[in-house]
Structure to design on (448 residues):
């Protein structure tokens, strides 16, 4: 039964009283005074832009979900009063291994708060470097077999700050960027004024080579790519990309955000699994997904790390990660590294899920990773199926629509994890079967 534990959050909500905490609330100024009558044209601009966004079906609403640490992946959904919260099984978390709900990880954070308080209280330069920051940077460097590591406040920031800083360092940089790179990499690349960007076809080494060959031989070059692409679940050819980098004298920058913790014998990512980590110049990762904590990082050799530490604005001018988060991450990285059974458990669940989907004739996109996309092919139907899963079955699966994926390739993105039981799986498959039959009868006939 859902408890009243959400009352803690309710008491502190900053939303207006008459609106539920769903992301559809009316925002007010300080002290609850509505500032809607302000005269600046930006207010009207927002209104118009938002009605366009709504008309295109791109308006964002959030489902307020409170994780139940003892019953993960069960969450409690907060609903508009007087409706009580209800249990929801989440099938789309990026805390792939459930480390954010592990006792040892939570206890490390709690103990650190008791001992060191909540926030870090300063930038790394202004009394905000706890000894644990340096320890975590070393642990991450060791995990990836690199000389040094650097923490950022998110994976997003590590990409943005590192790429922007590198690409504005020397004159004439050319950045070769995979067409499907994450928004945070694009933000860093676009923010590098003076650098040239060449976008190559997704995971297409022939296209990359043609573009490298066409570039001036003496220009400094960087290839920016990911290992696991999280929306399609496909995996890049790291050794092949690094071979091209060597041939054309380019630096390599690899985002392993959706791979760290999961691939490689110690969770060092696909580059570890493919024995290619030594060939990659800069590996970027997150502590917020498989490690269940928060923050981002890069690892590389000491010159590059030292340069970014000294010059990356997004590293320097922000309060550092709180000690509690660093303590949680340190514990989680150690456990994930030592305990291969966690990875085995995840991939067993992924295999079982795919087999059960096959038996139930539910179409899915086969990927070489842990990500299981269920193709829907229509934005409206995709959002409706996701809503119905939640409202009728207490199941949460994220709909992925344009612009995250191309129009016509809308899908539900499912990430089975070690704590999804056979029973939960059965409930999801029954619910999906019913909803697909009702919402997409033609696809279902074909699948059968
Ligand atoms: C490929 C990729 N890189 C970077 C990030 C940002 O990581 P974080 O969530 O730690 O900010 C994400 C987030 O989903 C991502 O998918």
């Amino acid at each position: 039964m859902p408890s009243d534990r959400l009352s803690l959050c309710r008491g502190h909500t900053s939303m207006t009283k008459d609106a539920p905490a769903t992301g559809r609330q009316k925002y007010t100024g300080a002290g609850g005074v509505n500032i809607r009558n302000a005269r600046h044209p930006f207010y009207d601009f927002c209104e118009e832009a938002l009605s366009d966004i709504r008309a295109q079906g791109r308006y964002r609403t959030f489902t307020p979900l409170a994780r139940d640490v003892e019953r993960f992946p069960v969450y409690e959904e907060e609903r508009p009063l007087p409706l009580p919260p209800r249990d929801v099984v989440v099938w789309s978390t990026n805390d792939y291994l459930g480390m954010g709900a592990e006792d040892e990880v939570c206890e490390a954070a709690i103990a650190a708060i008791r001992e060191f308080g909540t926030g870090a209280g300063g930038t790394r330069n202004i009394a905000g470097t706890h000894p644990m920051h340096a320890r975590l940077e070393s642990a991450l460097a060791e995990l990836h077999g690199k000389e040094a590591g650097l923490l950022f406040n998110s994976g997003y920031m590590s990409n943005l700050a590192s790429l922007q800083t590198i690409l504005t360092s020397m004159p004439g940089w050319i950045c070769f960027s995979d067409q499907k790179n994450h928004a945070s990499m694009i933000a860093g690349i676009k923010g590098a004024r003076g650098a040239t960007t060449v976008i190559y076809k997704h995971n297409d080494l022939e296209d990359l080579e043609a573009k490298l060959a066409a570039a001036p031989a003496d220009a400094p070059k960087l290839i920016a790519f990911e290992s696991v692409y999280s929306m399609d679940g496909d995996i890049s050819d790291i050794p092949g990309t690094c071979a091209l980098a060597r041939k054309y004298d380019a630096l390599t920058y690899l985002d392993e955000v959706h791979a760290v913790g999961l691939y490689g014998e110690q969770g060092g990512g696909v580059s570890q699994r493919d024995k290619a980590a030594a060939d990659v110049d800069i590996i970027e990762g997150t502590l917020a997904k498989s490690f269940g904590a928060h923050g981002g990082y890069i690892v590389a050799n000491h010159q590059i790390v030292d340069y970014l530490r000294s010059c990356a604005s997004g590293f320097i001018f922000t309060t550092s990660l709180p000690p509690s988060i660093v303590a949680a991450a340190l514990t989680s990285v150690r456990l994930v590294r030592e305990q291969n059974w966690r990875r085995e458990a995840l991939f067993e669940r992924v295999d079982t899920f795919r087999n059960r989907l096959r038996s139930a004739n539910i179409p899915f996109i086969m990927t070489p990773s842990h990500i299981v996309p269920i193709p829907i092919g229509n934005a409206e139907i995709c959002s409706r199926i996701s809503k119905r899963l939640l409202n009728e079955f207490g199941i949460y699966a994220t709909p992925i629509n344009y612009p995250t994926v191309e129009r016509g390739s809308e899908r539900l993105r499912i990430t089975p994890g070690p704590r999804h039981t056979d029973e939960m799986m059965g409930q999801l498959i029954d619910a999906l079967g019913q909803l697909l039959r009702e919402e997409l009868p033609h696809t279902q006939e074909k699948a059968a």
